[in-house]
Write a structure and sequence with these properties.
The chain has 495 residues and is of the alpha/beta class. The protein has three domains: 79 residues, Archaeosine Trna-guanine Transglycosylase, Chain: A, domain 4, CATH 2.30.130; 124 residues, Ribose 5-phosphate Isomerase B, Chain: A; 228 residues. The chain has a seven-stranded parallel sheet with strand order 19-20-18-17-21-22-23, sandwiched between helices. Strand 3 and strand 4 form a beta hairpin. 50% of the residues are buried. The model has no long low-confidence stretch (mean pLDDT 96).
Length: 495
């Protein structure tokens, strides 16, 4: 195993693949460099002396500039490097060829074909409150049904609590309605009971109309204030839904039906070397099979957005991408917050020093294919291929937005680990082997082997096989532990 990596020939920093003590001598491009300080795993070391103001180059791009002199072989981190980013930018469309040369292997998985033609990878019964006031009722109903059924024929029976649905105005109210609508219509649910209170802003009848054309046998409604005993009424509806959904069976469907969300969190210095490029390979593969992938976390595109813009399929998609980036920057400005206040303390501890560095690693999850469409928050996938989605970097909010866009599963790369799960299978992919070994109850797949001499394409084949297994019904850690949550983006006033 190599102990460090210079990612691009133009880079003036390298990344430690293992903890390197001060005094170590490294052979770099035919020369010997003696480390001036300890370099933790995932952190950067200077390959050449840097003066204040010099750009620090990683991935072949500037990730910021030195704020003080840095000696060759010294640690480069947030204490001696600062972002180059500031303010809003103007962009021009300069497309590059993003054609993929990956064969369609005509692979299939076994999913559930729904009445409207969509496919789910799970067959679950969900209880979705229109308002947070009935969270307790939804939880109680889910618990009662789970207790009543001795051998459940479904993949899960779950209630999805949230804090909203009332006392919201404008975009917040609409965002809540959109996310809840998309959850109710998600093909991973074989049946859904929508539970309302009766006096909330998100009125049940208006929400029913908002669903559009839906399967009236698989989506039923309960308004608690209109019935004498909401638990008795709710259980009667749930028994009906359970009987209908439990008759569903898996059938072979082409891999082109699969829709996958791409997300990272708790990143470290290896994220952009192992797990994120691995997801990029998988994204390109799935796109070539006719499937769809979705990249989000807009603030973690800042500093790398021009790479995505150059791959836009048309000038129209480019314009949407520009709005995606600038609208999110305006959101920061509107709230009197610095646009580039990132990365997080955990990211910095893992070796990521600036937002450019984080973004250049983050956007590698998108691979090299062209960007086919841009989705606003709460919109559903319209196009096969790579999509961009407007949502913040917050793990649970972004993962919920990916599921609500129609993704069957979310691939979540992490260098530090996290146990959370969203309402679709949330697959944790470690950037380093020590995390995989120390948190087997969190991590589903290890990409750390890539710096231990496993070829990237071999790891990609492992990942493809594993994810087809998940699509076929193999449960991931969050499902085994029943960690299932949703979070809705809030930007405005609460009454």
């Amino acid at each position: 195993m190599n102990t460090f990596l210079q990612i691009h020939p133009a880079d003036n920093v390298a990344v430690a693949l293992a903890a390197l003590p001060a005094g170590s001598a490294l052979a770099v491009n035919g020369a010997s460099i003696t480390l001036k300080s300890d370099i933790p795993r995932g952190h950067k070391l200077a390959l050449a002396p840097l003066q204040a103001g010099d750009n620090v180059i990683k991935y072949g791009y500037p990730i910021g500039h030195a704020v003080a002199a840095v000696a060759q072989g010294d640690l480069v981190n947030e204490k001696n490097i600062k972002t180059n980013l500031e303010g809003l930018l103007e962009y021009s469309y300069s497309p590059v060829n993003a054609t993929l040369s990956i064969a369609n292997r005509n692979l299939t998985f076994k999913g559930y074909r729904r009445k409207n033609g969509e496919v789910g990878i799970r067959n679950e019964l969900w209880i979705v409150p229109t308002v947070g006031c009935v969270n307790g009722t939804a939880n109680q109903l889910a618990g009662m049904l789970n207790a009543e059924i001795r051998e459940c024929k479904l993949d899960s029976i779950a209630a999805y609590n949230h804090s909203y649905g009332c006392s919201q105005l404008g975009d917040d109210h609409e965002n809540t309605r959109k996310i809840l609508r998309n959850i109710v219509l998600h093909p991973n649910a074989g049946a859904v009971l929508v539970v309302g209170l009766g006096c909330e802003n998100n009125q049940l009848e208006a929400f029913r109309s908002f669903l559009g054309d839906y399967d009236t046998e698989r989506i039923l409604f309960l308004e608690a204030q209109k019935v004498e005993d909401e638990l008795e009424e709710g259980m009667a509806l749930l028994r009906t839904l359970y009987a209908r959904a439990s008759a569903d069976v898996r059938t072979h469907v082409p891999l082109s039906e699969l829709r996958v969300g791409l997300k990272c969190g708790g990143s470290d210095g290896l994220s952009g070397i192992t797990a994120n490029p691995l997801l990029g390979l998988f994204s390109d593969f799935l796109v070539a099979q006719g499937g769809a992938t979705v990249l989000t976390e807009v603030p973690e595109m800042f500093g790398a957005e021009t790479i995505l813009m150059s791959r836009c399929a048309s000038a129209e998609v480019f314009d949407k991408t520009v709005h995606l980036i600038n609208d999110f920057k305006e959101y920061f400005v509107k709230n009197n917050q610095p646009i580039y206040e990132n990365p997080s303390p955990g990211n910095k501890a893992g070796g990521i020093s600036t937002l450019e560095e984080k973004s250049l690693g983050c956007t590698q999850k998108s691979g090299t294919s062209e960007v086919r469409d841009v989705l606003m928050y709460g919109e559903r996938i319209r196009q096969k291929g790579l999509n961009l989605l407007s949502a913040p970097g917050n793990d649970l909010v972004a993962a919920t937005a990916l599921g609500a866009s129609g993704c069957h599963m979310v691939l979540f790369t992490t260098g530090r680990g996290t146990p959370f799960g969203s309402f679709v299978p949330t697959i944790k992919i470690s950037t380093n082997t020590p995390l995989f070994q120390s948190k087997p109850g969190w991590i589903d797949f290890n990409a750390g082997s890539i710096v231990e001499n496993e070829p990237m394409y071999a790891a990609a084949e492992r990942l493809i096989a594993y994810l087809i297994g998940v699509a076929n019904g193999e449960r991931v850690n969050t499902e085994k532990k029943n960690f299932r949550e949703i979070a809705i983006f809030k930007t405005g006033v609460t009454l």
